[in-house]
Design brief:
about 90 residues, disordered C terminus, single chain, mainly beta, 7 strands, globular, four-stranded antiparallel β-sheet
C-alpha cells in the first residue's frame, strides 16, 4: 500500500512508503531538497523539503498526476487540529 503520513498536513511529513516506484531525490540548494516519485504505471508525485535560516523544515507538494495515496492521513489536521491515530 502506498502511504503518506503527515505530522501536519501541508507542512511536514512523518513518513512515505511507496512500492514499485523510482524515487529521485535532488539537493536544489543548501536548504532545499526535491523529491520525485514515479510509479511503475506512470503515476507521478513530487515536492520540496525546504528549511528556513534557523533549520526549521517544511514540505510543499509540487505536483501529482495519476498517483493515488491508498492511505493519506495526518497526525494533526491543520483545519481542525484533531489528533488522528493509526487505524
Amino acid at each position: 500500500m502506498n502511504r503518506i503520513l503527515w505530522n501536519e498536513r501541508g507542512k511536514d511529513i512523518d513518513e512515505i512508503i511507496v512500492h514499485n516506484a523510482t524515487i529521485h531525490v535532488e539537493q536544489m540548494h543548501d536548504r532545499c531538497w526535491w523529491i520525485g516519485i514515479t510509479l511503475a504505471d506512470g503515476g507521478y508525485w513530487a515536492g520540496n523539503f525546504h528549511c528556513d535560516s534557523r533549520g526549521h523544515m517544511q514540505f510543499t507538494e509540487q505536483e501529482i498526476d495519476g498517483f493515488d495515496w491508498e492511505d493519506d492521513r495526518s497526525h494533526i489536521q491543520s483545519e481542525n487540529r484533531d489528533f488522528h491515530t493509526e487505524a
